Amino acid sequence: MLHLLLSYPISQSHYPSFPASHELQFPPVLQTILNFSFYSLRIIIALLIHLNIILLQNNTFFGHSNAQNVIVLTETTSTNDYLKQLLSNFTPLEEYTAIMAIKQTAGKGQRGTTWIDRPGESLTASFILFPQKLTPQKNFYLTIISSLAVYDIVSIHIPLEVRIKWPNDIMIGNKKVGGILIENKISHSQIKHAVVGIGLNVFQSQFPSEISFKTTSLHKENPLLQKTILSLVTEIQTKLKFYNEMLLKEQYDELLTRYNQLLFRRNLNALFTVNGKTLEARIVQVCEDGLLEMEYRQEKLKYDLKDITYQL
């Protein structure tokens, strides 16, 4: 269900009161129970306000939506951290529940980088997955299904070439429009849950000069875009479910093939920085273990994320 915040302050006048005793008589025990129930309701509403969950109706940022399982925060440090905190407190959450924030003050990226987020312009959301029988050795498939879900939504709304830059950046042409950070909880050699953090530039028209040449937004590439951020989140939810169901059916080959077909700069000679040195090489594929296979001087080599950087 959609979690809402009552946006007005708590006061006695905002809550129903019981009729005076001369108007309607209740047994003393029942009267005590009813009074306690309404008192509890007031506490719950106060807690919701404390959590900064906001009312979505008639809000231009979100528009009208039939969103399911979306919690919206006015501000948080990181939606990934917020979702992990809920899980650590044993808060019951349905799979694909999304935590999204209007303002994220300490968003995370790969390799410890930060995600630049301007309030109201970016999609910053985290989704919960409960992989069934997925071992840590196959954890890269979570990256695959998350990347494919975001790719599908971006490509629907952008009439340009969209690709997945290994491991999980979304590119429009040669510019990055979004990124994904996945954090897994492993228990007894199984992935207990996965927190999928997604950042997507939506309405930005300008970027800092140091990244403007390699960064873009959905609106910059399609000024006619008429989507709200909330609707994009729910679309991603639907796609995550679609690809996760493929994963549950162990359709590993189909998922990996699809991912490789959409790989940025695959089969093209390009410049990379490898262990601090520039070299020209060709991406062959991404392997099941998540390593990038490249061809350099007729030799095939495999690299981990920490070993190689694209030169854009």
UniProtKB/TrEMBL annotation:
Give the enzyme's main class according to its UniProt record, as a single word: ligase
Q: Name one Pfam family in it.
A: BPL_LplA_LipB
Quote the InterPro entries the UniProt record gives. aa-tRNA-synth_II/BPL/LPL, Biotin_CoA_COase_ligase, BPL_LPL_catalytic
Keyword Heme among UniProt keywords: no
Q: Which organism is it from?
A: Sphingobacterium olei
What GO molecular functions are on record for this protein? Answer: biotin--[biotin carboxyl-carrier protein] ligase activity
User: Mind telling me which GO cellular component terms the entry cites?
Assistant: cytoplasm
Q: What is the name of this protein?
A: Biotin--[acetyl-CoA-carboxylase] ligase
Query: What keywords were assigned to this record?
Result: Ligase
E.C. code: 6.3.4.15
Report the superkingdom from the record: Bacteria
User: Residue ranges of the BPL/LPL catalytic domain?
Assistant: 55-244
SUPFAM superfamilies per UniProt:
Class II aaRS and biotin synthetases
